[in-house]
Amino acid sequence: MFVKILPPEVRSRIAAGEVIESPADVVKELVENSLDAKATSVEVEISKGGKRLILVRDNGTGIHPEDLEKVVQEGATSKIESEKDLLNLSSYGFRGEALHSIASVSRMRIRSRFFQEREGYEIEVEGGEIVSRRKVGMPIGTEVEVRDLFFNLPVRRKFLKREDTERRRIADLLKEYALVRPSVELVFFSNAREVLNLKPSDELDRIERLFGRGFERIYREAGFLKVRAYVKRNVSRGELHLFVNSRPVSTRTFKEFLRKILGYKTLGVIFVDMPPFMVDFNVHPKKREVKFVKERKTLSLIRDALLSREEDVILHLDQEIPRYETEFRVIGQLDNTIILAQRGDYLYFFDQHLISERANYESLGEGKGADEIACRSAIKSGKRLSEKEMEELIETWKKLKNPHVCPHGRPIYYRIHLKDIYEKLGRSF
Ligand SMILES: Nc1ncnc2c1ncn2[C@@H]1O[C@H](COP(=O)(O)OP(=O)(O)OP(=O)(O)O)[C@@H](O)[C@H]1O
Ligand SMILES: [Mg+2]
Questions:
Q1: How close is the Cα of 99 to the center of ligand 1, in Å?
Q2: For 104-120, what is each residue's pLDDT tens digit?
Q3: Strands across the sheet containing 267-273
Q4: Are residues 215 and 177 part of one domain?
Q5: Same structural domain, 420 and 344
Q6: Which of 203, 155, 157, 208 lies closest to 180 in space, CA to CA?
Q7: Is 119 found in the same domain as 88?
Q8: What DSSP character marks residue 411?
Q9: Which of 99, 112, 138, 280 to mutate to test ligand 1, by most ligand atoms within 8 A of the CB atom?
Q10: Residues 243 and 190 in one domain
Q11: Which domain holds residue 230?
Q12: pTM of this structure
């Protein structure tokens, strides 16, 4: 006989590799569990990039003493009862495999005090085996400590990256949960040094804490979905943080679709919310990939929302709500290249070539080579324009499907609030 049935502990160690490949994957699962347990404060500590130690402490509901030993078993979950529940998912967890997977490839200690109990309980697990159990004094909540990840899976351990790299991955991951749960306090220590300390706040405040000021907000409800986007255009390195139903999403094609709409030099934080049955997160064990039930419809609604130009949905957050006008007043042309115009409280700088290029591109349809043809036949920079021609170009701009970026992702315009100009001149606006 050549065929052998592997012993269960070996099988689960191998299967664990689907969910847990790195310390950041452990942090993700533990933090999601804390958030599912309604924690309002989550503390994460790591040492050696998480290779030696990962600890996540929360003040959530805790685990009932009778459940404590169960949670490290395969398929142990309190979050769903049957497959049907997957259609109405409101928790991060549903597979009942994260703690089991982590436990089978590490030395783990779980301490938890259920909210209706006077004491906490602790179990220690080594390579999936429960090795001790005792009572402990502790506040309500849960603390999971994971040491020596992959100590019993040397091949995997060898593939871990340098300490710095693993630490950066964890910090990036925590920022995503910080963005999506601004009301939760989040503290992060690495090698006993505090890296993040975020107090509970609201969405915009969190975003500004992490990325600075200067965001525009787009808030739109369209059909079955809601889109909230915070965008800062023309930054030196574009960055996109994407969440669907509060879950960080890294689906490449979807992100690329959004980058094309927003431009490659945009820092964007985008929240898409839709009914749970319209979206499937169970396409990958790590739940970072998303599939939409009505993909084309969903994408076109998202695109429309992001391209909306109505001033009542695009508020400049650092400034007061602009006086609303539809009319543009052309002021003139700079360098025979840039059209200067005013609308409401904003001064606009339009790139004449890019408006014309974008318009050609949209009328050609976004086929192969369309961008080149669009560019060649467009109005060139350096061409002097009459006032009438400028007005016409602005009219064209208003009708563009994507008024923000050219086919190659360069911004078509830049606008500045009059208040900023007044301020520079020491005048009050
Ligand atoms: N921090 C926590 N606070 C309270 N309960 C917890 C915590 N962590 C885990 N649990 C309990 O342990 C169970 C198992 O956790 P585990 O992460 O393995 O599975 P899950 O979250 O249900 O699903 P998934 O595998 O998709 O994450 C949870 O369903 C929950 O009942
Ligand atoms: Mg979980």
A1: 7
A2: 999 999 999 999 899 99
A3: 247-248, 239-244, 267-273, 225-232, 216-222, 314-316
A4: no
A5: yes
A6: 203
A7: yes
A8: B
A9: 99
A10: no
A11: 203-316
A12: 0.77
